[in-house]
Amino acid sequence: KPFRAHFGKTMDDGFVKQPAVVTRQDFNPKGMTPEALEELKLQDGVRMHEQTKVLLETYAREADVNIVKPFVLIIARDITHAKQLLDHIQSDGFFAGRYKTKVIQVDSSKTGAEEDVEQTTATVVSESNLKAKLGFQPEQQTSSTQDAGKDTVPVFLKPEEQRVAQIAYNVIKMLEAKPKQVPTMEALNWSENQSSIVQDVIALYKPQQMEIEGIVETPDIAAIVSQTTNLMVREMIPIPRILVVPKGEVKTWFEPFTLELGTLNYPVPSKDLWVHNLHTGKGESVTVSNAGFREARMEDYVVGGLVDFDDVAYDSNANLLYDLATQTVKHFLGYLPEEEVWQVLNQKGSRREVVQERQQLRR
After folding, report:
1. Which residues contact 343 (CB under 8 A, 6 or more apart)?
2. 126: Cβ–Cβ under 8 A, 6 or more apart, which residues?
3. Can you tell me the distance from the alpha carbon of 112 to that of 120, in angstroms, rounded to the nearest whole number?
4. 18 DSSP 8-state letter
């Protein structure tokens, strides 16, 4: 179903990746033609894309959630330029044609049917029933926005009481990160926690207009906090924290299996890239290549990375680990020349295939 969310808030809450500007470290484009510079940007973007795919799949396996497939959005100057980019990416000269069937062109000349892009005439926003009862409204509504919770009867009818309740809601939500202070939902009603919440709400609450004694009624913050707390305790479903402690002697081992390596499609590494986060303003260097020392054989890179994890015992699983490493090397040799495979495996800090193998071992 269609949904909407404020982009800045989704970044703050961790639901959307924070935008960043990526460039090569100590890079000087002087002397490069516009075509060469454009090609370099495309290749670096694809390299980051392939690395992101592996990171997302690794996280999905570890967290036991659905795998999210990332995509690359390339903004062209005009429709003609977009067609030129499309033809180039679909050519054999762009990463040996590996992206021929993985790129589409979307612009004002397209109807949308060809790209399976649906055009909607309205956006439906669904706030949680609890938030609707506290008077929360979807942010930045447009004329086509439909509020699914508009018929919900609010608990507090006066605007100032709703403001206090909403502040209390946000304060209580922050306590989710303090399990020692609030081990259960019922603990929100403990007197010390109620006092702390009331004090935080008082500090955050500011009347929307100057109060005139005897004319403007001051809301009963303590009573509203208590009522909001009871509502949240009654309607929110707590997620239990479960600790499983085995009894007796515990033995673990690994069985041979075939790795799933479909998302490991690293291009040949390039030089360091510099990432500037547009949301936080911070920058960091991302190393995608490393020249110098070379292991005796390709498999040693993968096994060496797996041994670094405490839950993978090399002595008792050496044969299995090298079998998995061999599968990984054969996968890379299936689409890259041997010398380029050495470069991929020798990337400093980017042997994500090691992490992915570890996650599959733990399955």
Report:
1. 268, 269, 289
2. 1, 3, 148, 149
3. 11
4. P
Neighbours of 299 (CB within 10 A): 20
Helices (H) and strands (E) in the chain, counts: 11, 5
CB 171 within 8 A of CB 165: no
Distance (Å, rounded) from C-alpha 303 to C-alpha 282? 34
Contact 65, 359 (CB under 8 A): no
Residue pair 162/156 in contact (Cβ under 8 Å)? The answer is yes
Per-residue pLDDT at 353 exceeds 80: no
Taken as a whole, the chain contains a residue count of 363
119 pLDDT above the threshold of 70? no
The per-residue DSSP string of 240-272 comes to --------S-------------TT-------S-
Candidates 156, 163, 232; CA nearest to 193 is: 232
Q: How confident is the model at residue 131 (pLDDT cuts 50, 70, 90)?
A: confident
The CA-based diameter of the chain, rounded to the nearest angstrom, is 85
Can you tell me the distance from the alpha carbon of 293 to that of 347, in angstroms, rounded to the nearest whole number? 11
Terminal Cα-to-Cα distance of the chain (whole angstroms): 32
pLDDT one-digit tens code per residue, 72-88? 888 887 778 888 898 99
Q: Which two tokens stand for residue 290?
A: 């490393």
Q: Look at the pTM and tell me if it is higher than 0.70.
A: no
Per DSSP bridges, beta strands 283-286 and 273-277 are: antiparallel
Q: What is the DSSP string of 168-207?
A: HHHHHHHGGG-TTT-SSGGGGGSHHHHHHHHHHHHHH---
Element housing 356 (H / E):
helix 352-362
Helix (H) or strand (E) holding 23: strand 20-24
Angle, alpha carbons 279-285-289 (nearest 5°): 140
